[in-house]
Amino acid sequence: MTYELPLSERIRIFLRLQNLFDQMQYFALHDNEHQNRAELNCLLDILTITSRNDLKNEIIKEVERHTKSLVIFSKNPHVDSTKLKKSIEQLNDLNLNLMSSNVRTENKLNQVELLKSLAQRSSIPGGSCDFDLPIFHFWLHRPLAERRNEIQRWTDNLTPLHQAITLLLQFIRSSATPMTKTAHLGFYQQSLDPNHCAQLLRVSYDRQAHYYAEISGGKHRFTVRFMQPSETERATQVDEDISFTLHVCQL
């Protein structure tokens, strides 16, 4: 079981988008009304996030920053030069694809009438019933091939973003050396090196455990609390020492 805490708004957005892309891919594997509804709900969330942020430039900045870091690492004789060279090539290719792509989503919600209607009803619980949105009811009962083609057309320009976020998070997660730590009476605190910008914290432990990890913090320090959930009461901190694996991810 792994819990993560992003330490910047940029990484927070990346994680949210990765989660939505993963959900959307899962729902796309099924052909029924409920899965299709869920798939379009994910798409709406993705379009909303990407339309509110200059995400293309944010990702390009992150790719360039990672590339510079890896070039510095390449001067270390103890680093696997072949693996590092491949990673740098992947980032360079990614950067070229992003710079040449037309990643524009701000008008998508206004250009596609179905998505526009769904977005307008999204704040109403259960607001996409057939009597609320007959256009959606009609769309859900069109042939599968037609629906898939339309969704593909709506999401084509998101592919470079999806690929970039996936690769960047992969690099970030693999950048840390795992450390075994102990949370005394369920509590752990650590300061962060101000000379190295940590991007992501990861806490892992036995998935069979009957408690969850609550991570909080910022650029200078963070805390981990292991909490015992309750159905009717507020969760309480466990009263035993907990061994866990910590990853402080930074590139």
Question: Any overview of this molecule?
Answer:
- Helix content is 50%, strand content 18%.
- The protein is of the alpha+beta class and 251 residues long.
- The protein has two domains: 9-171, Orthogonal Bundle (YacF-like), CATH 1.10.3900.10; 177-249, YacF-like (Sandwich).
- The strands form two sheets. It has a four-stranded antiparallel beta sheet. Strands 3, 5, 6 and 7 form a four-stranded antiparallel beta sheet that branches.
- Strand 6 (221-228) and strand 7 form a beta hairpin.
- The chain is globular and about 55 Å long.
- The model has no long low-confidence stretch (mean pLDDT 88).
Q: What attributes characterize this protein structure?
A:
251 residues; alpha+beta; four-stranded antiparallel beta sheet; YacF-like; 2 domains
Count of distinct structural domains? 2
The CATH architecture assignment of the largest domain turns out to be Orthogonal Bundle
CATH level 4 superfamily of the largest domain: YacF-like
Strand content: 15-25%
Which H/E pattern describes the elements? EHHHHHHHHHEEEEEEE
Overall number of strands:
8
Radius of gyration: 22 Å
**Could you list the spans in which at least 5 consecutive residues all have pLDDT below 50?**
none
- Provide the residue-averaged pLDDT: 88
Largest sheet: 4 strands, antiparallel
The CATH topology assignment of the largest domain is: YacF-like
CATH class of the largest domain: Mainly Alpha
Share of residues in helices: 40-55%
Count of helical regions: 9
